[in-house]
Amino acid sequence: MPLLLIPATALAADDHDHNHNHAQGTAGFYGHLDIKVYYDHVYKAEEADEEIDEAYTHSHLEMGYGFGNGFSVNTNIELEGEPAGHDHGGGGATLDGSNRYFEDTPLFVRALTVNYDNENFGAYAGKFDPVISFDQHVMPGIYGYQIVDEYTVREKIGVGGYGRINAGDFGTHRIDVSTFFADTTFLSNSVLYERGVTHKSDGGVSNTDNFSSVAVSIGGSDFYSLNSDIPEGLSYRIGYAHQAAGEGDETSEDRYTFSGQYEHVFTADLKGRALGEIVYINHLNGEAPHDRTYNTVGAELDYRQWSLGSTYTYVQNENPEDADEAQDGEVFQASLSYNFANGITLGAGYKYQEEEGEKNHRIGALIGYSLAF
Fold first, then answer.
1. Ordered structural domains, the chain, with CATH
2. Cα R_g (the chain), whole angstroms
3. Average pLDDT over the chain, rounded to whole?
4. C-beta of residue 52 within 8 angstroms of C-beta of residue 95
5. Closest-CA residue to 277 (of 84, 134, 82)
6. Which 8-state DSSP code applies to residue 191?
7. What is the pLDDT of residues 105-117, one digit of tens each?
8. Which residues contact 334 (CB under 8 A, 6 or more apart)?
9. Which of 18, 33, 287, 294 could form a disulfide with 279 if both were Cys (CB 3.0 to 4.6 A apart)?
10. What is the DSSP letter of 131?
11. Pairing of strands 100-101, 53-67
């Protein structure tokens, strides 16, 4: 089967290029700026101290420089303030009833790689997020990325590569493979709010300082044939990741992902998509008795510049040694947004979440700005 160039956006079902695929023939600088600012009101929670107002941001600046011969240098700088209850270095503070406005917001380098890309394959080395499942920004709704952000394998040091396959009427496909370990360099720290440098002694799966963790996945799209029953708007990704045990971990972690999406254009003004993703994690975070499964379904309807999107995730926990961690949970979110031609987005939404038996409800607003250069 011949190989050909496939846009990463088609394979990842994403508006951004998070799959380590760059313009191989382009010389010069390029980039993408995406700013999102949220203002939420938590109006119903288990504890009165958790009913607060908060403002936070989920923003990034992707930049690269192409040398015109397939080689490039690329980075993703992120400003990631998180809603209360999440913790990737900010947003995990204990709530005391006080409102939170852009508190504990780290600015850090999420990715920094040297890349080589041509029409048939690519390779990269540095700091990156291994390609395992759909990117978090694929999820519909203004809060859709947040549930994926809980389980994304992120900020690893290693090497990886991909190859593209053209299967004719049976679509175009891309295979991604990488080996990695947790970032313990100075890049694991942040400014504005210091997360602190990660050390091997901190433990955690993949924190091994050697290439004992791996990820492999395959994704595809562009199914089309007058004689085929495969829907033209279908895309998928199937992935596996092994994260070796670090210091203090009981065992290694293995995860399996199954993601699929279908897009349909009804008219020139109206289009929609539906998606589903299952992520099964065996020995979550290296805990021998703890397994977790994220089951997500979502849908989006776009009419001209309006977008109506929603997701529902059912979280299954298995942990016979800890009753709290064995409780199942769920997350539902829905929103309506308007995308202006100048790159500005305005949105409003609702989110309900239950975790470890505690429930909360929030409503909020989003203002965003996106610019490619």
1. 8-372 (2.40.160.10)
2. 20
3. 90
4. yes
5. 134
6. B
7. 999 999 999 999 9
8. 141, 308, 309, 310, 349, 350
9. 294
10. -
11. parallel
